[in-house]
Amino acid sequence: xxxxxxxxxxxxxxxxxxxxxxxxxxxxxxxxxxxxxxxxxxxxxxxxxxxxxxxxxxxxxxxxxxxxxxxxxxxxxxxxxxxxxxxxxxxxxxxxxxxxxxxxxxxxxxxxxxxxxxxxxxxxxxxxxxxxxxxxxxxxxxxxxxxxxxxxxxxxxxxxxxxxxxxxxxxxxxxxxxxxxxxxxxxxxxxxxxxxxxxxxxxxxxxxxxxxxxxxxxxxxxxxxxxxxxxxxxxxxxxxxxxxxxxxxxxxxxxxxxxxxxxxxxxxxxxxxxxxxxxxxxxxxxxxxxxxxxxxxxxxxxxxxxxxxxxxxxxxxxxxxxxxxxxxxxxxxxxxxxxxxxxxxxxxxxxxxxxxxxxxxxxxxxxxxxxxxxxxxxxxxxxxxxxxxxxxxxxxxxxxxxxxxxxxxxxxxxxxxxxxxxxxxxxxxxxxxxxxxxxxxxxxxxxxxxxxxxxxxx
Length: 458
Prior knowledge:
32% of the residues lie in helices and 22% in strands. By secondary structure, it is α/β, with parallel strands linked by helices. It has a six-stranded mixed sheet, with helices on one face. A six-stranded mixed sheet has the order 7-8-9-10-11-12. The chain has a five-stranded parallel sheet with strand order 17-21-20-18-19. It is globular, with a radius of gyration of 24 Å. The mean pLDDT is 93.
């Protein structure tokens, strides 16, 4: 009997393979279907069942692609907003026999109306519940967000409270297998640890510390989450299903003539995404390119990209480009032309100014705050809760994801210093503003982390 977890980088998604005696079930699969096939082969199991705990908003489900490869049956919660075309309905109390495991569905609405959890019961231990796959209902040190139904937020928060009490009654020793870890857009306070128990969460999770249902609802209504524009595309894709597994992605190096077309900004046939490190981008980049390295590509790509525009990547290597293409593919961005390497070094001062982003330290920012020039502005691109916890003096706040729709409020003749928590998102923001024609932009290196250290030392 085994449980295997599969973590998807970028979106911090966790999916699971559970099985025994030649049978296995996958819970909340990604498009990276080869992971599950490889693990099933290792355990000499056939994947017979696929269960989705809810309709996801931040990535395309791999259920259809995996079912087409294995012949497995797909199940989804009964109360989806739209009928899930590729899945059978699973309701409270439904059970699935997977070797020596019994998997029992628990209806847990709140995050979404169709949310379910899956209780894993060991039939060799007198039907003892061992663990529960909690989807986006319960995480490590966090609970699901309840803002996807703006007109019913109070109702959804109340349902989530009831669902959490249902889970609490399963027993303190039950192992919790959540669908996301730290860094996910599905919650802001998740711990780095990816495993927990019901008992630990009852003692430590803020969602369980509310003294009443009313207090819990009030807490949830005060939360501030962000809904990226691409979520609507994901929701629709996860109604109809996508049958192409991720290994179909192949990011090829662009030929020299194609590279030349992408390098010439006036002739560029789409958008150029630089997935190299922030430091590399600040040092030298293609003018007009957008810096989105690592997990920031998944976290913020959906705010800046559309589905009709071709994408090329600037990467250090084939592996880096392919991993980035995979992140985009999971989000439904399939028009990926390929990748470029070798950013040409500037040969004139004018070219250097176009290809370089200046960085400033805390002492320089302090100097500017103390004696601000009329045309200077500190621009904070952090999330609202970060700003509320630690505010920059005299800063204007625009959440990074809102820059595409709000940058028209900024004056291109002004000098902007971009700030965030560490300087990473500030570099992303600087790259976007530069691509939009802002000429006097720099990045506060270290940002809030550096600012706090500087304040303590002065």
